[in-house]
Structure formats: C-alpha cells, structure tokens
Design a protein that fits this description.
By secondary structure, the protein is an alpha+beta fold. The protein has helices at 10-21, 27-34, 38-50, 83-91, 117-128, 151-160, and strands at 70-78, 96-101, 108-114, 133-140.
C-alpha cells in the first residue's frame, strides 16, 4: 500500500482552527463554533486522529518554568549507519526536546534546553559522547521571534473553500 499523506479539507480546517483556539473544547462546543453537527465533528476528529493528523495532546510548557531557561540547537554530524542507535541515545537525554533529521551540511538538528551555560556544556558533551556522533556545533537561542504555530495555515485552508 503506498504511503498516502492525509489531506485536510476546509471542514477539517475549520474544526482544527476552533480546536487550536480552545484545545479543551468539547465536541459540542466545537460543533457550535463551526456550525457543524456534533456527529460530523466527532467523525472528523476520529478520522484526523486515525490518519495521524492530530498528535497526542501535550500542553506547551515553558521550559524556563521547569528551571531550564536556556534553549539551544545542536547541529550534529553522525555516522549514518548508526542513526537508529543515535536516535535512541538522544531519546534518553531528558534535556533533548526534539530532533530533526536534515539534508545538507549537517545530519541532525537537536533542540535542547539547559539550566545555564555549564549545563548546556554538559548536555552538548553528552551528545558528542554518543557512539556515532562525529561533530557538533551549538547555537544558543537569544530570542524567540515567532512561536510555533499552524493557525495561519489552517485559516488559509478555511478561506480557500
């Protein structure tokens, strides 16, 4: 079976916009907001979950509130044949928030949080010590200019209908 990417139509997008605005909204509240039937909203949400469009619910928590005010990205070059074991090792580092595989000059973009500069140094060293990691370059985030968002894309889909 070919790998088919699920598509979100304007009805799905309107439900997702409402859900994005109030992540705690009930199906009934979403139905009222979107002017769709409760059954339509419920069926669409179930379809989106099954297709993997909706990921697990996790509230966005400021790492600074947990004692991790520093954010950094560690550009990482690796031995490709060891990528699976490297990913497993990175998954075991609590300060690793997410990891992206890249094309181009470097292989991985590792998003980390740290308590202070010394902690960041320790984390970067721990990543560099992983078998198969060849080189790292650490970039400290000075300021976040645009937060993670999908609402503009969702609204664009709703408007296009």
């Amino acid at each position: 079976m070919p790998n088919v990417t699920p598509t979100v139509d304007s009805i799905d997008a309107s439900i997702l916009v409402a859900l994005n605005e109030d992540s705690r909204a009930t199906v009934i509240a979403l139905a009222e907001k979107t002017k769709l039937s409760r059954n339509t909203v419920q069926a669409r949400l179930a379809k989106l979950e099954k297709q993997g469009v909706l990921h697990s619910f996790e509230r966005r928590i400021d790492p600074g509130a947990l004692g991790y005010p520093l954010t950094a990205f560690i550009l990482t070059s690796v031995t490709q044949r060891k990528l699976s074991k490297i990913a497993d090792a990175l998954d075991g580092v609590p300060e690793v928030v997410e990891v992206h595989g890249l094309s181009g000059v470097t292989d991985l973009l590792v998003h980390v949080v740290a308590r202070d500069a010394d902690d960041l140094y320790r984390i970067a060293g721990r990543i560099l010590d992983i078998d198969g990691v060849e080189q790292t370059t650490t970039a400290l985030v000075m300021r976040k200019l645009v937060d993670y968002r999908l609402a503009p894309l969702l609204r664009q889909l709703v408007i296009q209908s």
